[in-house]
Amino acid sequence: MLCISVEGKFTPMKTIGERNLTYAALGLKYGYHVDELDVITDDGYILKIFHIAGDKTRPVLLLPGMIQDVEVFIIRGNKSLAITLANNGYDVWALNPRGIGRSRKHVHLNPDLDPKFWDFSFHENGYYDLPAAIDFVLERTSERQLSAIGYSQGNTVFYVLGSTRPEYNEKIKVMIALSPVCFLYHLKPLTSFLLPLIPIVGNSLRSIGVVELLNDNSLLKRLIQRLCSLKRIGYELCIQSIIFQVGGNHPEELEPEFLPSIFANYPSSMSIKNIEHVSQVALRRKFAQFDYGPEQNLVLYNARAPPKYDLLKVTMKIALFVGGNDSISTIGDTELLRHKLPNVIDYHLFSVEKLNHLDFVWGRNMDKYLFPHILSVLNKYD
């Protein structure tokens, strides 16, 4: 079986705006040198971690969401989270989990030839990638703890980490969850309509050897990036008709002129297994490990059903930042998470009425609405 991408390959497109600028190049553009370093996980994945040097006693680790890489934390320049943290003296680290961007490497497996490379979901991100990155940062800084900020699935992995490897709870000063994603019980109509289709599509793609979606050279990704970067057509088709329908409407925070910067690196690749795991959490209404079916579950888990993640073991301090118009991380689901976690030190429902799922990383006024709250929490628990 070959790891092929949906729709084959497409001739690379020309540069548009800041298209194809890396995290390091964007950092330099806004006044900071960025080190690109490799982190190797226990199961052999080679992850790229990006570092803007600051006060080593105040390390902060950033984790992006699904189909995003770390550029999402810096594309707004001086109004971006990474630059804001650096300007405030923090030692800023940003991790691309396995399969995303420059983390598409393994000590033995070839992501283009070995299907096993893509045999992972957010579970492996939490169980392998996060511990490797945390230990790497703490060793480099000679600190015992770090702070962390995870956006969307980038905070889901911390619930996996804390429940499956509880010794790491003590290594986190505080984890700030932007648009928290754990339970997916109250999704809005379009997303809830699409979810039941994911297992069907996933099985169909696997049957023809597809285990990776949105490879950098795939026709589908290139078409998305080319079309969605067009200000008028891209905004109407990609933003208003799709992204706002899935994540919540808020045109005031996302101007058409910003589309080329967004789609320079978005969407990023992902494994079929990851989106299947997300759909299982939503459809079966259980925040649990991957369900392989009764027979294989018996072999792997010694039970016919996969074990739930025990959130009572997630004892790290957690701040939940919620948008009132977020159609993915809904108020109902974040309230449930708030009551399930044992150490929520802050639950902030933003007063910006239309704050949606993508505003947390794409919004043009987050330096006013969001970052002061982030800095307040970091300073309090530093």
TrEMBL record:
At the top level of its lineage, which domain of life is listed?
Eukaryota
A molecular function annotated in GO for this UniProt entry is: hydrolase activity
Which residue positions does the secretion signal occupy? none
AB hydrolase-1 domain: residues covered: 59-349
Task: State the Gene Ontology BP annotations.
Answer: lipid catabolic process
Q: Which terms are listed as keywords in the entry?
A: Glycoprotein, Hydrolase, Lipid degradation, Lipid metabolism, Signal
Q: Does the keyword Glycoprotein apply?
A: yes
User: Which InterPro entries has this protein been placed in?
Assistant: AB_hydrolase_1 (IPR000073), Lipase_euk (IPR025483)
* Stored PANTHER family: LYSOSOMAL ACID LIPASE-RELATED
Q: What's this protein's family per the entry?
A: Belongs to the AB hydrolase superfamily. Lipase family.
Give the protein name, as stated in the record: Lipase
